[in-house]
Amino acid sequence: MKIRQDKSKPVFDDLESWLRVQLHRISGKTPLGGAIHYALTRMKKLRPYLDHGFLELDNNAAERSMRPIAVGRKNYLFMGSKRGGKSAAIAYTLIETAKLNNIDPQAWLADTLAHIADHKINRIDELLPWNYTQA
After folding, report:
1. Which of 68, 76, 134 is nearest to 105 (CA)?
2. What is the pTM of this model?
3. 3-class DSSP state for residue 132?
4. What is the rounded distance in angstroms from the CA atom of residue 37 to the CA atom of residue 19?
Protein backbone atom coordinates (compact mmCIF):
# COMPACT_ATOMS: atom_id res chain seq x y z
CA MET A 1 0.00 0.00 0.00
CA LYS A 2 2.86 2.39 0.82
CA ILE A 3 4.39 1.70 -2.60
CA ARG A 4 1.10 2.59 -4.25
CA GLN A 5 0.92 5.82 -2.27
CA ASP A 6 4.55 6.68 -3.11
CA LYS A 7 4.62 5.65 -6.76
CA SER A 8 1.08 5.36 -8.12
CA LYS A 9 -0.66 8.24 -6.37
CA PRO A 10 1.51 10.93 -8.02
CA VAL A 11 0.79 9.33 -11.41
CA PHE A 12 -2.95 9.33 -10.69
CA ASP A 13 -2.81 12.95 -9.51
CA ASP A 14 -0.78 14.09 -12.53
CA LEU A 15 -3.06 12.24 -14.93
CA GLU A 16 -6.19 13.73 -13.40
CA SER A 17 -4.72 17.25 -13.52
CA TRP A 18 -3.58 16.79 -17.10
CA LEU A 19 -7.00 15.48 -18.14
CA ARG A 20 -8.73 18.48 -16.55
CA VAL A 21 -6.44 20.89 -18.42
CA GLN A 22 -7.03 19.06 -21.70
CA LEU A 23 -10.80 19.04 -21.20
CA HIS A 24 -10.78 22.85 -21.15
CA ARG A 25 -8.67 22.96 -24.32
CA ILE A 26 -10.73 20.46 -26.33
CA SER A 27 -14.40 20.63 -27.22
CA GLY A 28 -16.44 18.25 -25.09
CA LYS A 29 -18.45 17.35 -28.19
CA THR A 30 -15.51 15.65 -29.91
CA PRO A 31 -14.75 11.95 -29.39
CA LEU A 32 -11.52 12.89 -27.60
CA GLY A 33 -13.40 15.29 -25.32
CA GLY A 34 -15.90 12.54 -24.58
CA ALA A 35 -13.11 10.11 -23.75
CA ILE A 36 -11.46 12.61 -21.40
CA HIS A 37 -14.77 13.29 -19.66
CA TYR A 38 -15.35 9.53 -19.37
CA ALA A 39 -11.90 9.07 -17.77
CA LEU A 40 -12.41 11.93 -15.32
CA THR A 41 -15.75 10.60 -14.12
CA ARG A 42 -14.11 7.26 -13.31
CA MET A 43 -11.09 8.60 -11.44
CA LYS A 44 -13.00 8.64 -8.14
CA LYS A 45 -13.78 4.93 -8.53
CA LEU A 46 -10.11 4.17 -9.30
CA ARG A 47 -8.76 5.87 -6.17
CA PRO A 48 -9.54 2.98 -3.72
CA TYR A 49 -6.80 1.06 -5.58
CA LEU A 50 -4.30 3.41 -3.93
CA ASP A 51 -5.57 2.71 -0.40
CA HIS A 52 -6.21 -1.02 -0.46
CA GLY A 53 -3.42 -3.42 -1.36
CA PHE A 54 -5.76 -6.28 -2.27
CA LEU A 55 -7.44 -4.35 -5.09
CA GLU A 56 -6.24 -4.73 -8.65
CA LEU A 57 -6.29 -1.93 -11.19
CA ASP A 58 -7.95 -4.08 -13.82
CA ASN A 59 -10.19 -7.13 -14.03
CA ASN A 60 -7.85 -9.27 -16.13
CA ALA A 61 -7.86 -12.16 -13.62
CA ALA A 62 -11.65 -12.39 -13.76
CA GLU A 63 -11.63 -12.13 -17.55
CA ARG A 64 -9.04 -14.92 -17.84
CA SER A 65 -11.01 -17.23 -15.57
CA MET A 66 -14.14 -16.73 -17.69
CA ARG A 67 -12.36 -17.22 -21.02
CA PRO A 68 -12.66 -21.04 -21.14
CA ILE A 69 -16.40 -20.73 -20.67
CA ALA A 70 -16.73 -18.22 -23.49
CA VAL A 71 -14.48 -20.24 -25.80
CA GLY A 72 -16.42 -23.43 -25.18
CA ARG A 73 -19.88 -21.87 -25.35
CA LYS A 74 -20.75 -23.52 -28.67
CA ASN A 75 -19.77 -26.91 -27.30
CA TYR A 76 -22.14 -26.48 -24.36
CA LEU A 77 -25.08 -26.47 -26.73
CA PHE A 78 -24.51 -30.20 -27.16
CA MET A 79 -24.44 -31.33 -23.53
CA GLY A 80 -27.34 -33.60 -24.36
CA SER A 81 -29.94 -32.31 -21.95
CA LYS A 82 -30.73 -29.67 -19.39
CA ARG A 83 -29.51 -32.04 -16.68
CA GLY A 84 -26.26 -32.64 -18.59
CA GLY A 85 -25.73 -28.88 -18.84
CA LYS A 86 -26.30 -28.49 -15.10
CA SER A 87 -23.82 -31.29 -14.35
CA ALA A 88 -21.24 -29.67 -16.62
CA ALA A 89 -21.77 -26.29 -14.93
CA ILE A 90 -21.15 -27.89 -11.52
CA ALA A 91 -18.01 -29.63 -12.77
CA TYR A 92 -16.62 -26.45 -14.36
CA THR A 93 -17.38 -24.48 -11.20
CA LEU A 94 -15.53 -26.98 -9.00
CA ILE A 95 -12.54 -27.08 -11.37
CA GLU A 96 -12.29 -23.28 -11.55
CA THR A 97 -12.68 -23.08 -7.75
CA ALA A 98 -9.75 -25.46 -7.36
CA LYS A 99 -7.67 -23.25 -9.65
CA LEU A 100 -8.60 -20.13 -7.67
CA ASN A 101 -7.41 -21.91 -4.52
CA ASN A 102 -4.05 -22.75 -6.15
CA ILE A 103 -4.87 -26.45 -6.26
CA ASP A 104 -4.17 -28.74 -9.18
CA PRO A 105 -7.72 -29.58 -10.35
CA GLN A 106 -6.74 -32.99 -11.70
CA ALA A 107 -5.03 -34.03 -8.46
CA TRP A 108 -7.93 -32.73 -6.36
CA LEU A 109 -10.53 -34.44 -8.53
CA ALA A 110 -8.68 -37.76 -8.58
CA ASP A 111 -8.23 -37.70 -4.81
CA THR A 112 -11.85 -36.67 -4.20
CA LEU A 113 -13.24 -39.37 -6.47
CA ALA A 114 -11.04 -41.95 -4.73
CA HIS A 115 -12.39 -40.99 -1.28
CA ILE A 116 -15.96 -39.85 -1.88
CA ALA A 117 -17.57 -43.32 -1.70
CA ASP A 118 -16.32 -43.89 1.87
CA HIS A 119 -16.80 -40.31 3.06
CA LYS A 120 -19.64 -39.42 5.45
CA ILE A 121 -22.33 -37.38 3.67
CA ASN A 122 -22.65 -34.90 6.55
CA ARG A 123 -18.92 -34.08 6.16
CA ILE A 124 -18.90 -33.71 2.36
CA ASP A 125 -17.68 -30.10 2.65
CA GLU A 126 -14.30 -31.50 3.74
CA LEU A 127 -13.79 -32.64 0.15
CA LEU A 128 -14.30 -29.20 -1.40
CA PRO A 129 -11.29 -27.58 -3.07
CA TRP A 130 -10.62 -24.96 -0.38
CA ASN A 131 -10.36 -27.71 2.26
CA TYR A 132 -8.10 -29.94 0.17
CA THR A 133 -4.52 -30.57 1.25
CA GLN A 134 -2.22 -32.29 -1.18
CA ALA A 135 -0.42 -35.33 0.18
Report:
1. 134
2. 0.51
3. coil
4. 8
